[in-house]
Design brief:
With 275 residues, the protein is α/β, with parallel strands linked by helices. It is built from six helices and 17 strands. A nine-stranded mixed beta sheet has the order 1-11-12-13-10-14-17-16-15, sandwiched between helices. It has an eight-stranded mixed beta sheet with strand order 3-4-5-2-6-9-8-7, with helices on one face.
């Protein structure tokens, strides 16, 4: 059952969280990763926009994985999309990871709940174990069982990942899936927006179906916190981004913009209102 939510209390809880993260509870969003067609330009864009630093690790001949850091903490990553992804017409995009205790068990549970397993479970060196899955409505995400790498190590700072929205044509089916797989809770709010909770903490939401654009594929939309949404939006435009929505204010919550980086990966900026 979807229960009503007090937006004011959500904002108080949101702004009270600690900026540095040592570990993620099962079911929490734990990693974000950009799949791009131009890794060099993507690094220039995001380091300029968010003040990230980066380090590159070889993945093979002429291939490397970029780790972004904020205040010396892992904040995101990016890689160049594989030829088969581009051949399928998959556009540049941000990937979202959910923390789990046992990737094999959760992968089986997701499949039993009508999720589609694209790959995994498999080990990523000694960093962790993962699978990539689509929920029954088509939105793709990954799961992460940490080993050496626990995932995101910073939150609720300028340039840090802070929220995710699920855009789906069938919220009821999606809610059932994620509840069964991760034990998430949901609570209803204003304008039919549904808040997602995990381990007593709000982590994301599901906007109303009426907000979806025609022919928009189901997906997870990532938000990054900024100190000044309008200034960050203007900087993003100067760096080559395209703005789809905003900047706009959500009463008693914050100010936000939806935009795409120069390669086309869509993400959002979010400036929480003080409480």
């Amino acid at each position: 059952m979807v229960e009503p939510v007090d937006f004011h209390q959500v904002c108080i809880a949101y702004t009270a969280r600690m900026p540095h993260v040592d570990q993620h509870s099962p079911g929490a969003f734990c990693w974000v990763e950009l799949a791009t067609t131009d890794q060099l330009l993507a690094k220039a864009f995001y380091t300029s926009l968010f003040g990230w630093r980066y380090s590159d690790s070889p993945m093979g001949p002429n291939d490397y994985y970029t780790m972004f850091q904020l205040e010396g903490c892992n904040a995101a990553a990016c890689y160049t999309m594989r030829p088969d992804e581009q051949t399928l017409g998959i556009p540049p995009h941000w990937n979202l990871y959910v923390a789990v205790d046992n990737a094999d068990a959760v992968t089986r549970r997701a499949a039993d709940c009508d999720g589609k397993v694209f790959c995994g479970p498999f080990d990523v060196s000694t960093h962790g174990r993962m699978s990539t899955i689509a929920d029954p409505t088509g939105a793709v995400f990954s799961i992460w069982q940490p080993n050496d790498n626990t995932g995101l190590a910073i939150s609720h700072q300028h340039g840090a990942f802070c929220w995710a929205d699920l855009s789906t044509p069938d919220p009821a089916r999606a809610i059932q899936f994620y509840t069964d797989v991760f034990g998430w809770s949901t609570r209803g709010g204003a304008i039919d927006y549904i808040h997602i909770g995990n381990a007593g903490q709000e982590i994301g939401g599901i906007p109303p179906v009426s907000f979806r654009q025609p022919h928009e594929p189901p997906h997870w939309q990532l938000y990054f916190q900024v100190d000044d949404c309008d200034a960050a939006t203007e900087l993003a435009i100067q760096l080559g981004a395209n703005v789809f929505v905003g900047p706009m204010s959500v009463e008693d919550v914050g100010r936000m913009t939806v935009l795409a980086d120069p390669q086309g990966a869509v993400f959002s900026l979010f400036q929480p209102f003080p409480h």
